[in-house]
Amino acid sequence: MQRENISDIIEAYLKTILAQEAAVEIRRAEIARRFNCVPSQINYVIKTRFTPARGYIVESKRGGGGYIRIVKVKLTDDQDLVQIMRQHIPKRLRLRDARDLIQELFDNSLISQQSGNLLLAAMNHETLGILDQGTEEHLRSRMFLAFLDRLRYER
Amino acid sequence: MQRENISDIIEAYLKTILAQEAAVEIRRAEIARRFNCVPSQINYVIKTRFTPARGYIVESKRGGGGYIRIVKVKLTDDQDLVQIMRQHIPKRLRLRDARDLIQELFDNSLISQQSGNLLLAAMNHETLGILDQGTEEHLRSRMFLAFLDRLRYER
DNA sequence: TTGACTTTGACCAATCTTGACTATTACACA
DNA sequence: TGTGTAATAGTCAAGATTGGTCAAAGTCAA
């Protein structure tokens, strides 16, 4: 099955590098040439796949000698992660962002796999879908904040 | 033979694959073409035959490179309690009843303390309180059903 | 006839791709 | 020192490519 789209392929390529190095530094045009796509495609990949919710920080510089650098953040203090997340939960939380956040919590050993799965079930569109979209996302945000608060007390 | 409807045929086709692989990944339009039906028929088949209660998880993605993936999950050995609970969840679930049910799950070692706490946070009145009482209790019921379905899976 | 299940199709939503236009930076050179 | 130019990256919106939803119409057995 090779119906993968270019974005996924580029994502995989970058993650291959990140699996070995703490950061990747690329030149946008070069990557675009390598994967035979327009340069702005790289921005799309970064914006959708290397988000803060997934634990990435992206820096760049334009002009001669310009670059894009992707860094995988590794926090040493778990309490910080909860705090930081808490401060950045928007009033309305989309399902895909919630997924990423839960994955982050799991990756950092703050919740078990079971907990993650159950939370996902709770915040799923299947479950909340009886609400209008605005209310659904608002409620998802509230639920996530409640989780995080509970996580803080647990420790 | 000639009595079979398309939905049954598509169901059988997918299950043939699932008998050999742990998951099927399809493109909706392609399957629809193969069986000479409209694409939304595939959604109907999935919704009626590949439900969580029957041990399937369905994921999908739209847009370029989109897909529908059906995963057959292993059911846990001991699920009597889950089954019984599932059959008795009312359309509207009050918080105090939800508490008791979660406690029951914990007492029977079906969920960890962490999971229980997080679920409680999710279904709390603090969290769901922005809804009117009817909606709140209805949603709590839906959430609980979603939990129970998840609990039946091993992963 | 009725009610459950199936089939269809119009319309909706999410995701990816592309390209025109914009913003920044380094460097050469007046 | 100032300024123009080449080299880079960023933004945004239109278009393409998928799957999702819903309700009306069809089918069939009790």
UniProtKB/TrEMBL annotation, chains A, B:
List residues of the CtsR C-terminal dimerization domain: 77-148
Q: Where is the CtsR N-terminal HTH domain?
A: 5-74
Picking any one GO molecular function of the record gives: DNA binding
Q: Which InterPro entries match?
A: CtsR, CtsR_C, CtsR_C_sf, CtsR_N, CtsR_N_sf
Domain of life of the organism encoding this protein: Bacteria
According to its UniProt entry, the protein's GO biological process terms are: regulation of DNA-templated transcription
Q: What Pfam families does the entry give?
A: CtsR, CtsR_C
Q: Which UniProt keywords apply?
A: DNA-binding, Repressor, Transcription, Transcription regulation
Q: Which family does it belong to?
A: Belongs to the CtsR family.
What this protein is called in its record is Transcriptional regulator CtsR
| Taxonomic source organism | Lacticaseibacillus chiayiensis
- Lineage, highest ranks first: Bacteria, Bacillati, Bacillota, Bacilli, Lactobacillales
